[in-house]
Automatic annotation (TrEMBL):
<keyword id="KW-0949">S-adenosyl-L-methionine</keyword>
<protein>
    <submittedName>
        <fullName>Demethylmenaquinone methyltransferase/2-methoxy-6-polyprenyl-1,4-benzoquinol methylase</fullName>
        <ecNumber>2.1.1.163</ecNumber>
        <ecNumber>2.1.1.201</ecNumber>
    </submittedName>
</protein>
<dbReference type="Pfam" id="PF01209">
    <property type="entry name" value="Ubie_methyltran"/>
</dbReference>
<dbReference type="GO" id="GO:0008425">
    <property type="term" value="F:2-methoxy-6-polyprenyl-1,4-benzoquinol methyltransferase activity"/>
</dbReference>
<dbReference type="InterPro" id="IPR029063">
    <property type="entry name" value="SAM-dependent_MTases_sf"/>
</dbReference>
<dbReference type="GO" id="GO:0032259">
    <property type="term" value="P:methylation"/>
</dbReference>
<keyword id="KW-0808">Transferase</keyword>
<dbReference type="GO" id="GO:0043770">
    <property type="term" value="F:demethylmenaquinone methyltransferase activity"/>
</dbReference>
<dbReference type="InterPro" id="IPR050508">
    <property type="entry name" value="Methyltransf_Superfamily"/>
</dbReference>
<dbReference type="InterPro" id="IPR023576">
    <property type="entry name" value="UbiE/COQ5_MeTrFase_CS"/>
</dbReference>
<keyword id="KW-0489">Methyltransferase</keyword>
Length: 198
């Protein structure tokens, strides 16, 4: 069992469950129960028996310690400031069981990529325009370019996860347009070592 933090409409669940058929349950955690219920009805009816939901604020969460074999989170980091990211790193370290794994992915600024200018033009100008014109004035992507460049990449978050005692690594996807913080909680972390010494 594991958590999808800031799960939204659960876009990642089909991929997660297909790649890991042994997963018995994903517990979606989000501020919005309404969005979750709608997504369950429209997108996830066929996998509803493997999805649970907890309405919760990940920045002030009482999710139980050592309750998860894995934590995933997709595209929820970029609007968080440094202090909020630190709280998320703390929560991840707390809820994972020793040996539990985690992966966060976020839209990022592909610094150093020769097509960066074109990509950011697409993100900041083309995508919001297409969305406004073709999706009846929707503005879900209006700020994604700004959020991505403000966020930078997942390197800082990787350092925060390491500061919480997790083994974390940084990865790039698609030339750095998305970046990943992933890894595991050590089986014998400092708390376990203290126990072992007693
Ligand atoms: C950009 S969406 C990402 C949704 C989904 N993970 C995806 O990949 O499409 C951000 C989600 O985070 C949720 N969220 C934002 N702040 C939160 C918080 N403090 N605690 C829990 N959920 C939060 C929002 O309700 C929203 O569903």
């Amino acid at each position: 069992m594991g958590y999808d933090l800031m799960a939204g409409t659960g876009e990642v669940w089909p991929h997660l469950l297909e790649a890991n058929p042994h997963i018995s349950q994903i517990t979606a955690v989000d501020l919005s129960a309404g969005m979750h219920q709608l997504a369950m009805k429209r997108l996830h009816a066929m996998r509803a028996h493997r999805i649970d939901f907890i309405e919760d604020d990940v920045l002030a969460s009482n999710l139980p310690a050592a309750s998860a074999d894995f934590v995933v989170s997709t595209f929820g980091l970029k609007t968080f400031n440094a202090e909020q990211q630190r709280k998320l790193a703390q929560l991840t370290a707390r809820v994972l069981k020793p040996g539990g794994r985690f992966a966060f992915i976020e839209a990022s600024d592909p610094r150093g990529w020769w097509l960066r200018g074109l990509y950011l033009f697409h993100l900041k100008v083309v995508l919001p325009l297409v969305e406004r014109l073709l999706l009846r004035g929707a503005n879900d992507f209006a700020m994604i370019g700004t959020y991505s460049t403000n966020f930078g990449d997942a390197r800082v978050f990787v350092d925060m996860l390491r500061a919480q005692g997790l083994n974390a690594e940084f990865r790039k996807a698609f030339f750095g347009c998305a970046t990943i913080a992933c890894g595991a909680k050590p089986v014998l972390g400092s708390a376990d070592m203290n126990d072992a010494a007693i």
